[in-house]
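Recall the central idea of this unit: under ordinary conditions, the amino acid sequence of a chain determines the structure it adopts. In this exercise we apply that idea directly, starting from the sequence alone.
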Amino acid sequence: MNELFALLGQDASLIGYLLIDMGVAILLLGGMRYTMGMIGKVNTNEELAIKDNFAYGISMAGGVAAMGIALSGTITGELAGSYLIELIGMLCYGFAGLVMIKAGRYIHDKMALPEFNKHEQILNRNISVGIVDAASVIATAIVVRAALIWVDGLNIKTFIAIFCAWIVSQLMLVIITRIFEWQYLRHNANSFQSTLELGQVALAIRYAGYLVSTSMSVTAASYFIVYDAQNLLDGIASWAIISLILMVVLTVLTMFAKCIVLWGIDRREEIENQENIGIATIEFAISFAIALLLMALMA
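Accordingly, the structure predicted from this sequence is:
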């Protein structure tokens, strides 16, 4: 604590940067709630406090967490050079992050899970869909954060690079969804999406683990690519290829880890048939842990 006060005493400008960053962050976190209400044409007070719609609350919690994750990639502090540049950078990149998170939610609805109306299901208190929605925006935000850290400067090319990285993330999330659906359909009469629509929470938690860990493998891929504005397409193409490779590596490692940690347990029976939320949560934790270790090794 004494070291912190000493540091602030030697460089009072840190307080200014802290106030700017936190002020913009809190503003955008609040903006996430109101944009959800405006876009969805929903009274958020009514859904959260009057109807006590837990599914809507989970969905919004995912959006707020996603915004915070994305904003953590915009903070530069003293490296910005001035308060004005830091403020402009936070506002521009923060707004871009907000737009990409919202757009990612739309893409996930229309391309990854097109068989039902996610918004209607959440308003109808479908907690499993709320969990999936929260996981999808958090997964998008993890890659947006990686892209914000990867780029350098504040110009048109940096925004193009961030947008391209966002496209890569959406592609990976759609691919992992199709793989998950294929695996589920091999052992079940109903489709994955129709089961989610019925409110299968354990399956939603398992799928959420796939989404979040996949986004972390895409982030790990960014560590291999050096940002070069002059060769942007080559960098993005390399990022996409390495992301696919790491996604395969992550899938294999995660499957092996789940077999070891949950040895002697029929995971498919417990999650898909008995709706065992505990086992599903352990699977989520394993997926997250392996992805985190993979990120640490690649960094």
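Residues 156-187 form the longest helix (32 residues).
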